[in-house]
Design goal:
Structural class: alpha/beta
Shape: globular
Distance between the termini: 31 Å
Number of domains: 2
Protein name: Cyclase
CATH architecture of the largest domain: 3-Layer(bba) Sandwich
GO molecular function: arylformamidase activity
Strand order of the largest sheet: 1-15-13-7-9-11-12-4-14
Number of strands: 15
Organism: Pseudofrankia asymbiotica
InterPro entries: KFase/CYL, KFase_sf
């Protein structure tokens, strides 16, 4: 599980950005990136993958017990009741004994299971499709590629590559383990033909790290360094594979998709720096894949219908999501 792509991150990022760019592939006004690969025909075909009707939520709970600890102002959701069962109809000014409960939530949009939108990362001040970042995302939000533009189309064929189970010890990869293109190909070989990855697919990569972190929580040790610390993840080298397969999106069970520490000293998410503004690839983080993975291992079927639409927060650069896989 090693890759050699040079010692200079600036040069590697620049070369990969040029080689794997999808700029203008869908026109100068595009706001969807690789989600364009997931068209109506792909969605219709994916519906045929529902055979048993069993469904799996791939989301973490959205509550105060999540993995965030305040880094970059990311905190866990704060749920507040604005009216409760203790409030009477008379207090609410409602007729014939009717009373209601309401609530509100404060949370960063990327604090738990979520999508990174195309406006989340830039490369030297350049956003998706070659736009200037300062003109694309302002204090008013993402004016061009807001997450609302992909609120409808992100449902189709999902494919799970359980790299942790295929190549790890006891179903998990160790922190700091890079997943290479060869590792993805070997996982596909071991899992069989239902794991083939192609145009328009939503790829899910399980490392096993979330399950390991969850055991720490249950043991009373908290989440540890799950949010932003060392983690298994995709190698920078996989950019060519991700681009070449023409997938619509990729999501993992880790905080940041790519291996951490990153593969260069002092680097910070170099795969993001190419994948979002140049490839236009939607990235999903902190997805709970364990229950689905166990089912796939039992029946040997690693493809399924997946509904994973972001919430249409206008101008947002990311969104919480409750992905649901149906087999």
């Amino acid at each position: 599980m090693t890759a050699d792509f040079g010692h200079d991150p600036e040069a590697a990022i620049a070369a990969s950005a040029k080689r794997f760019s999808n700029w203008n592939r869908w026109g100068a006004d595009d706001a969807r990136g690789t989600v364009n690969f997931l068209d109506a025909a792909k969605r219709s075909a994916a519906a045929d993958l529902i055979r048993r009707g069993d469904s799996f939520s791939l989301s973490l709970p959205f509550d105060e017990h999540g993995p965030q600890f305040g880094w970059k102002r990311r905190v866990n959701p704060v749920h507040t009741m604005t009216s409760t069962g203790m409030d009477t109809a008379e207090q609410m000014g409602l007729p014939h004994g009717l009373s209601v409960a309401d609530d509100a939530v404060f949370m960063p949009l990327q604090c738990a299971t979520q999508w990174d939108g195309l406006g989340h990362c830039f490369d030297h001040g350049i956003a998706w499709n070659g736009r200037l970042a300062r003109e694309t995302v302002t204090s008013e939000g993402d004016l061009v590629t807001g997450i609302e533009h992909v609120a409808a189309p992100v449902l189709g064929r999902g494919v799970l590559l359980d790299v942790g189970r295929a190549l790890g010890d006891d179903g998990e990869l160790p922190d700091g383990c890079p997943i290479t293109s060869a590792d993805l190909a070997e996982t596909i070989r071991r899992q069989g033909p239902t794991s083939a990855v192609g145009r328009g697919d939503i790829l899910l990569v399980r490392t096993g790290q979330l399950g390991r972190a969850r055991r720490g929580v249950l043991a009373g040790d908290g989440w540890g360094a799950y949010a932003g610390g060392p983690a298994p993840g995709l190698s920078f080298e996989t950019l060519g594979w991700l681009h070449g397969t023409e997938i619509a999106a990729v999501a993992t069970d880790t905080w940041g998709v790519e291996v951490r520490p990153n593969e260069w000293p002092e680097a910070m998410q170099p795969l993001h720096q190419v994948a979002l503004p140049h490839v236009g690839l939607l990235l999903g983080e902190m997805w709970d894949l364990d229950e689905l993975a166990a089912d796939c291992a039992r029946d040997g079927v690693y493809e399924f219908f997946l509904a994973a639409q972001p919430l249409p927060f206008t101008g947002a650069v990311g969104s919480p999501v409750n992905p649901v896989a149906v087999k």
